[in-house]
TrEMBL record:
Pfam assignment, any one: Fer2
Superkingdom assignment: Bacteria
Listed Polar residues bias regions: 25-35
Disordered: region residues: 1-39
Keyword terms of this UniProt record: 2Fe-2S, Electron transport, Iron, Iron-sulfur, Metal-binding, Transport
UniProt GO molecular function: 2 iron, 2 sulfur cluster binding; metal ion binding
Segments forming domain 2Fe-2S ferredoxin-type: 64-153
Protein's UniProt name: 2Fe-2S ferredoxin-type domain-containing protein
Family the UniProt entry places it in: Belongs to the 2Fe2S plant-type ferredoxin family.
Record organism: Roseateles chitinivorans
């Protein structure tokens, strides 16, 4: 089971490359030529070709399908959202309490797929991780998943409380 990029402590973000400037160059030498070039305005410089994706389309996170066992329910989980919140957004309540990986109330078994954690070390032992246990409150999908969580509840199927039935 892969926990990249979180397990390695690598967020995947890299600083922008700095321009090639000689350490001996004066400030004006390092800028030579750049002042005479026209500045491109994004609205003007954008290609008119409709096949080019909009900038915000490239920034959207990938979305993966998550199946819950034994119920057979499915929901979509964007890579930038925890499994717990994605399930709640789709009307599925997973057990939870702290939402930060310490209480373990949300523990579930990863049957298949890959996840990454939002925190460096979730409240699981090495043995539990090796057995496939995960904490959905701090885990994000990195592929399509199958989770075993028999305590999940479909909020749309819950009957109203007795006081509301009168």
């Amino acid at each position: 089971m892969s926990h990249a990029p979180d397990a390695a402590g690598d967020s995947g973000h890299r600083p922008a490359a700095s321009p090639d400037v000689s350490p001996d160059a004066s400030p004006t030498e390092s800028l030579s030529g750049s002042l005479s070039e026209p500045l491109a305005h994004p609205a003007v410089a954008a290609p008119a070709d409709a096949s080019v994706a909009a900038p915000d389309a490239a920034a959207r996170p990938a979305v993966h399908s998550v199946a819950l066992q034994p119920q057979g329910w499915r929901f979509d989980a964007p890579e930038d959202q925890t499994l717990l919140l994605a399930a709640l957004d789709h009307g599925l309540r997973l057990p939870h309490s702290c939402r930060n990986g310490t209480c373990r109330a949300c523990i579930a078994r990863l049957v298949s797929g890959r996840i990454g954690y939002r925190i460096e070390w979730p409240g699981l032992s090495r043995e539990e991780k090796d057995e496939g246990w995960i904490l959905p409150c701090v885990a994000c999908a990195r592929s399509d998943l199958v989770l075993d969580q028999p305590q999940a509840i479909n909020l749309f199927d819950v009957p109203p409380p007795p006081s509301a039935r009168r």
